[in-house]
Request: fold
Amino acid sequence: METLIVERKDGVVTVTMNRPERKNAANNKMLNELKQIFAEVEDSDADRVLVLTGAGGAFCSGADLSDPDGPATDRTRSGLARMRRLGDVALGLHRVTKPTIAKVDGVAVGAGLSLALGCDLVVCSDRARLSMIFSRRGLALDNGASWLLPRLVGLARAKEIALFGGMWGAEEALAIGLVNRALPVDELDAFVDDWATTLAAGPPLALSMTKTLLNASSMSSMEQAVEDEARCQALNFSTKDTNEAIAAFTEKREPVFVGR
Reply:
């Protein structure tokens, strides 16, 4: 890939956006490669956890407005067609049924922040700077932000973040629930590695079901939620992994999950 560095180790796929000279701004090539890698991770039994990060001390500074083929600038397509390509990236990440972690250092703004928030867990360094900067550029939200923000921080706070387009530091973002953890920059890698390896060693089917149930919860009634839980749990009890977990508990050892 031209704009991404993809590394695989023990079930963890680390995807690094690699355009540090542009603070990892997403050009058309990067958007296409992100869609491709999200689909690959979802399709691979060996890939259990996705970590998304950026090179050179930045996460992603949003869409690259200097790219003539980008979603904001490609004059060979209609505006709607261009922006749907960007939306496809958000949907591709959302459709990854495995745990996803955003490791955020430096700036994550605009569509870049949307990418981070599209992950299940967001861990940032104490020098991270986050902004839904769209309104300051005369734009509305995109890349899934209008769906993600209210679910993370509530409608009133989402409106504050989006309408003003201000910059949020790591501790502020942590306080309002925009991120899961804010850590000293020299602790960031080790912490995310620990979370990722722990999740990769977990039961793939059960984790996938848990993620799906939680994502659907805001759109479900209580009746539908408990019915969906019952179906998932009935399936879990028929798997080798659940039997392995019960046996390991009885035998006082760590379980080994295979995703079956």
Summary: The mean pLDDT is 94. The longest helix spans residues 28-43.
